[in-house]
Design goal:
The complex is a heterodimer of chains A (471) and B (196).
Chain A: H1 5-11, E1 14-16, E2 23-26, E3 29-32, H2 38-47, E4 57-60, H3 77-93, E5 96-98, H4 108-114, E6 123-126, E7 140-143, H5 146-155, E8 157-160, E9 164-171, H6 180-191, E10 199-204, H7 206-209, H8 213-221, E11 230-232, H9 237-243, H10 252-262, E12 275-280, E13 287-289, E14 297-299, H11 312-325, E15 340-343, H12 351-361, E16 371-374, H13 379-387, H14 390-397, E17 422-425, E18 440-443, H15 446-455, H16 461-470
Parallel strand pairs in A: 3-4, 3-6, 4-5, 6-7, 9-10, 9-12, 10-11, 15-16, 15-17, 17-18
Antiparallel strand pairs in A: 1-2, 2-8, 13-14
Helix pairs in contact in A: 2-5, 6-8, 12-14, 12-15
Chain B: E1 8-16, H1 23-26, H2 46-49, E2 71-74, H3 86-94, E3 98-101, H4 106-113, E4 118-121, H5 124-136, E5 141-145, E6 150-153, E7 159-161, H6 166-174, H7 178-183, H8 186-194
Parallel strand pairs in B: 1-2, 2-3, 3-4
Antiparallel strand pairs in B: 1-5, 5-6, 6-7
Classes of the chains: A alpha/beta (471), B alpha/beta (196).
Chain lengths: 471, 196
Amino acid sequence: MGQTLFDKIWDAHVVSSSEGFPDILYIDTHFIHEVTSPQAFDGLRQRGLPVFRPKQTVATADHNVPTINQHLPIKEELSRYQVDMLTKNCKEFGVELYGLGHPYQGIVHVIGPELGITRPGGTYVCGDSHTSTHGAFGAIAFGIGTSQVEQVLATQCLLQSRPKRMKIEVNGKLQKGVGAKDIILYIISQISAAGGTGYAVEYAGDTIRSLSMEGRMTICNMSIEMGARCGLIAPDETTIEYVKGREFAPKGEDWDKAVAYWKTLYSDADASFDEVLSFKAEDIEPMITYGTNPGMGIGVTQHVPETASFEAKEQGSYKKALDYMGLHDDETLLGKPIDYVFIGSCTNSRIEDLRQVAEFVKGKHKADNVTVWVVPGSKQVQQQAIAEGLDKIFNEAGFPLREPGCSACLGMNEDKIPAGKYCVSTSNRNFEGRQGPNSRTFLASPLTAAASAITGVVTDIRTFLKEEELV
Amino acid sequence: MATKIFKHIQTSVVPLPIENIDTDQIIPARFLKATTRDGFGNNLFRDWRFDGDDNPKQDFVLNNPNYSGKILVAGKNFGCGSSREHAAWAIADYGFDAVVSSFFADIFKGNALNNGLLPVQVSEDFLKKIFDAVYADEHAIVEIDLVDQFIKIVATGEQESFEVNPYKKACMTNGYDDIDYILSKKDEIAEFEGTR
C-alpha cells in the first residue's frame, strides 16, 4: 500500500512512537510572534530551561504593530510592552528576531516562505492557526497553543496524534475573475466551518496544480477555517522555482540533494485517504461571505439562504448571525453599500495579490463612501511594491499602501473597522467583532475587494472584466 | 511542572446553545495583550457579556444569576478559529472546570487539555438532553467522571460515555505535564537529530 504525502513527511519526523501516547514529532522550524509567546518564555524561566534549538526558532512582530509610522514608538502602551517583551525574550534566549524596522519583518506566514525558510518536506509550527499556510510547499504546518509553544521551545518537538487524511481535488478551468481565494471560500461553504476537523487535507487536481505559490498559500492558509489540522499541496516545479535562490534556501550541492528529496514528496497512486472530495472549477463563482463564520459563503450573484432551509436546532445560531450582519433571508449582497475595503492579511498580502489589485485599479478611483487600506504582508513585499511603482497606482486610486502587519484582520492593533460598518476584506475570518467590536465583514478575493472599493458596493468582478474586454 | 488535577465533578451548568462559538468570541483579540496567564476570565465572552459602555448585557447567560456552575455547555464546533490558548485560560480563569459540546475544534481541545479544563464531547442527542434538563430546572446537576469516562444528568440518571486520549487522561488525573514527558525523551531527540 502506498503512502500519502502527509504520512511520508510525518513518518520522517517521528522521534518516538509509543502505544497509547501521541507521537513525538520533530519540528524543523518554530515561528514565534509577540502575542502567543510571552507566557511560553516565562514557562522556560520557571523551569530553568534554555531554548533547545534557538537556530530553528524565528521571531517577528506582526499582530500588534501599527501599519503607519512604524519608525515611531508604538502608541498603545500594552501593545508596545508586548512587542518590547518579545525583543527582550529573543535577546535573553538567543532567538533571531525580525522586529519592527528590520528588512525581513512582516506577517509570520508571509516571511517564512519569502525567506526560503519554509520548504517542501519540513515541519513548521507557530502559535497561530494560520500556520497551515506553509503547507502550500508540501510541508506539515499547523497552529499550536502557548503551552505547546513552550514545549517546542524546550524540546524542538511536539506531542501530537496523527490526524486522519482527506484529499480535496479541484479539476477544471476557472472562470475569469475567479482565483485561489474563491476556490477555498467555495470549498469551505460546501463542507462547513467544521468539515475538515480532525483531518490533514491534501489539495490536488489540475486546478490546484495550475496555481502560483501565492495562490496555493491562500488555499492552505484557510484550511483551518474548515477546522482542518493542516493543509498541504505536493511540491512540483512551481514550488521548486519559488524556493530557489531565496535567502535561506539550500545552495549548491545541498540544493541538488534537497530537490532530489522533494521530488519524492507526493501521495502514491495507491495511497489511501480517509475521505476524498471532488469539486469542479467551473462551478466556482467569485465568492463572498454573508455570515459570521467562513463557512457562510455564497457565489456573489446568489442570495442569502432562508432561515427555514436550516434544521430547527441550527436556526437560532443562523438568525443570530444574520442579525449581527444586518442582513435578512434571501437578500442579495450585490449592490450593498460598503464602508471599508481591507486588502491584506496572511491570506492575501503577497506581492502577487498587490500586483493583481494594482493592475485592476490602474486609472480607476475608489468610491467616496469607502475607506481603503492596502497592507503589505512584509517589509520585502512593501519594498517590492514600491520598486514596481504599485504604490503610485494605489495612491492615485485612493488605495494608500501602508506598512506591514496583521492590521485589520484581527481587531487587535490600531487598525479596526468601526462598529456597524461593512468591510469587504481579503482576510480569513468574518467572526463577530473580528475586525473590531461590532464590525461586519464580507470575506472575498482581492479582485472582488478592489472592484467593490471602486463602486462603493458589493460588486461582481466579472461585470468589470466584461466591460474591459469590450473596450 | 505539576498542573491542575481533574478526576470528577458534580455541579450545576451554564447553558450556551450557540453553534460555532469561535475563540474570538471567547476572548477578543484586543484582550490578548497581557504577558501573563492570569485575569483573562474578566473578559471571557467580552462582547456578548458587556455592551460598548461596559455595562452587562442582561440577556447573556453569564449575567443571569439563575445560572451558575463549573460546566459550560455549548453548541457544536466549540472553540473554532484562532489558536489562542487565552480562550482556554479565560474559561478556566472564570471558574469553569469543563466544557461540554457535541463537537470541538482541534486546537481548542488540545489547549483545554493542557490547562486542566476538560472538553467533554457528547452526542447531539445527549447535548439536547442537557439543555432540556437545565431549561426545565436551572439548578439541574450534571456529573462528569474522567476516571470512568462518563457524563450523567443526575436527576434523570441519563448518562453517556465520552472519549479521551489515554495519555491526556493520565496527565489530567495525575497533574502531569507534556514537557516533563518529552524532556524524559531528550536522548532520543538528540539521537534523531543525529540521523538527519
